[in-house]
Design brief:
Strand content: 15-25%
Number of helices: 18
Helix content: 40-55%
CATH class of the largest domain: Alpha Beta
Largest sheet: 6 strands, antiparallel
CATH architecture of the largest domain: 2-Layer Sandwich
Number of strands: 23
Distance between the termini: 168 Å
Structural class: alpha+beta
Number of domains: 5
């Protein structure tokens, strides 16, 4: 063996000895280390790498470096990547990938490459240091997940103005994403926790589901895994759906479940929501439960907040509508002055908001109330009692901004506004009620007097006839007087009852087309012999169209008008009963030559119980009811009634009635 050969052998042995020493050193390193040639075939692996991969060292030496990688594009591209490194000899960069262990687990690793060279500097392979980054990746993922959870909760709580379906859809999709699930659902629970009402499914679940019609309500007692969270009243994790004893199966076309988790959401001890997710790649754990529960609890609180706001807004809108639409004046008093009022207040006091707000209540009162007490002093007394918590209801005389007076019924109540005491005043204008009470008193007085007169006459004549014998002439005269007073009493009672029925809207009208001539003829026939002093003339234009009316009620109108014409023209004379057409109406009139009515009283004679109060009219009996009855009947027909009169010359009463749009059902003939 020549010198050069011996030298080469010694160098090779020295090299092997060096490699052995290096390999021995690498065996003691806690990191995984392996060497491979340029084709990626492993030529050395230390014990740490064998422990990381789960393979024996002998098994590793028969494998390529990509045999340990998770199947996919990264694994497929690694041979070309190694070839490029050998060709370019650029400094290798750390390489992150997922390795597949012998027992089927995936682990995250980072590979730090360095070149292996021979004595000539030629690249003959690689030395690779493997770091198991699974825990670090998991920690980083958990950190990112926590940030995502916080971000999701923050975005959820910002959705205060969103619609209900937007809130629930966001919470459900975020629950699916943050638990790394693929499907999710949300259901509401009824008050006695017996029924689940399915509200929504996640988008992916809706895509996968092939069931055309799914029920919305599920009885808890008959529901499988979905109802278990209600029955157990706690979250339920099922990481092996096929093995769980709780499942009751699902229909064909339903999303296939491998893993499942659902959680109940409580409100004051009652389950209000059950939310669930499914088909996570890894097993569900308590972290997923917390994530799902946090999101759904936040969603429920937001829903309740929205409901509270909506209820408050609706309440405010209803109050505002009632406040502004009330028929009573409503205003608020703070520190003795008006701070707010409704539309009716301004209308009632005939002023603007600027003129009313800021005033004291006694500003709109006369100096003295009808009971003689000072208005300011009495107002302060009522206000103090109301502020002390005793509601005050009393009658009060007010004056409007223009100085006119009106009577009001006042209600004063203490209210709390922003922890400060205020008074709410409600005023109802009772001027009309007071006037009605006054008129009622007048009516009772008038009716009592008018009834007493005929009753006294009849009673007197009856007693006289019972105690005395009279001849035929006197008997007939006495009976005539009694009949006259009886008729008068009957008229009084009939008018009063008619008016009461009309005002109570208890009168049923039978509207039919009526011939005017026939109507006037019936009235004329009834009064033709009523008085020897009077002559009734009928003045009817030819070819008058029929009117639409209730025959019996219109005869009451004509009878009352003719009766008044006779009554208030005691000296006799002509009474004209006429009719003519005025566009779409027919006007009936009754004209007399009697006392007449003063012009300043013409606007009041149709009021109930009103009678003209002068010497001439006081001598004529009456209750002031007849014209009020006429007015109500004609208004019910859609017509109008008016009067023209001259004192000492007589009066003319006009009644207009709408023309019938169809011919009379019965031919009433002519007169």
């Amino acid at each position: 063996m020549d010198h050069d050969t011996i030298k080469g052998v010694r160098e090779e042995e020295t090299l092997k000895l060096g490699e052995q020493r290096i390999h021995a050193l690498l065996e003691s390193v806690p990191l995984g280390v392996y060497e491979c040639n340029t084709d990626g075939l492993v030529t050395f692996a230390n014990e740490s790498y064998a422990r990381i991969t789960g393979y024996g060292k002998d098994e590793i030496l028969e494998m390529h470096v990509w045999d340990f990688m998770e199947p996919g594009p990264q694994k497929d591209s690694l041979p070309a990547y190694l070839h490029r490194l050998v060709q370019e000899q650029a400094p290798p960069t750390p390489y992150s990938c997922r390795n597949l262990t012998k027992d089927g687990r995936f682990i995250d690793v980072q590979i730090d490459w360095t070149y292996r060279r021979n004595e000539g500097g030629q690249v003959i392979g690689f030395v690779c240091i493997i770091s198991d980054t699974t825990e670090r990746k998991r920690a980083e993922s958990a950190h990112r997940l926590n940030e995502s959870r916080l971000d999701a909760l923050a975005r959820l709580y910002e959705m205060t103005d969103a619609a209900l379906h937007e809130i629930t859809n966001f919470a459900l999709e975020e629950a699916v994403r943050l638990t790394k699930s693929t499907v999710g659902y949300l259901s509401f629970v009824n008050e006695d926790e017996t029924v689940l009402t399915m509200y929504s499914w996640s988008r992916h679940a809706m895509k996968e589901c092939r069931i055309s019609e799914t029920p919305l309500e599920y009885p808890v007692a008959a529901t499988g895994l979905w109802g278990e969270a209600v029955r157990q009243r706690k979250p339920v994790i099922t990481n092996d759906y096929q093995a769980t004893p709780y499942k009751k199966g699902y229909p064909e076309g339903h999303v296939e479940l491998r893993r499942h988790m659902n959680a109940p959401i409580f409100d004051n001890g009652r389950i209000v929501i059950v939310a669930g997710v499914g088909n996570k790649e890894e097993e569900y754990d308590e972290t997923d439960v917390r994530q799902l529960s946090l999101l759904m609890q936040g969603m429920w609180q937001l829903i309740q907040h929205r409901r509270t706001i909506d209820a408050l807004r609706n309440s405010e809108e209803r109050y505002r509508a009632l406040f502004e639409g009330a028929n009573d004046a409503i205003f608020t008093i703070r520190n003795g002055r008006v701070v707010k009022c409704n539309r009716k207040t301004l209308e009632m006091f005939s002023c603007s908001a600027e003129e009313f707000i800021g005033r004291t209540p006694e500003y709109f009162s006369p100096p003295v109330q009808p009971d003689g007490r000072d208005s300011a002093e009495k107002a302060r007394e009522k206000i103090m009692l109301a502020l002390a918590g005793t509601p005050q209801v009393f009658e009060w005389q007010h004056h409007r901004f223009d100085g006119t007076l009106f009577e009001g019924e006042v209600s004063l109540n203490r209210i709390e506004h922003r922890d400060k005491a205020e008074l709410q005043a409600i005023i109802r204008d009772i001027t009309e009620r007071k006037e009605i009470e006054r008129m009622k008193d007048q009516m009772i007085s008038a009716v009592s007097h008018e009834m007493r007169t005929p009753l006294t006459v009849m009673l007197g004549f009856t007693e006289f006839l019972l105690e005395n014998r009279v001849d035929e002439v006197k008997l007939k005269d006495y009976l005539g007087t009694m009949h006259k007073e009886t008729t008068r009493l009957n008229e009084l009672i009939s008018n009063f009852l008619d008016l009461q029925r009309i005002k109570a809207q208890k009168v049923i009208y039978s509207f039919k087309p009526l011939t005017v001539r026939s109507l006037l003829a019936d009235a004329d026939e009834l009064f033709a012999v009523a008085s020897k002093k009077h002559r009734i003339v009928v003045d009817v234009h030819v070819d008058l169209p029929p009117v639409l009316g209730d025959r019996a009620r219109l005869l009451i109108v004509l009878n009352n008008l003719l009766s008044n014409a006779i009554k208030y023209s005691p000296k006799g004379g002509k009474i004209t009963l006429g009719a003519l057409q005025d566009e779409d109406s027919v006007v009936l009139w009754v004209k007399d030559e009697g006392m007449g009515i003063p012009p300043e009283l013409l606007d009041r004679i149709f009021d109930r119980f009103y009678r003209v109060d002068n010497a001439d009219h006081r001598t004529t009996s009456g209750t002031g009811l007849g014209l009020a009855v006429i007015k109500e009947i004609i208004h019910s027909h859609g017509g109008q009634v008016r009067v023209e009169s001259t004192v000492g010359k007589g009066s003319t009463f006009f009644v207009s009635l709408p023309v019938a749009k169809e011919p009379p059902a019965i031919n009433m003939g002519t007169h």
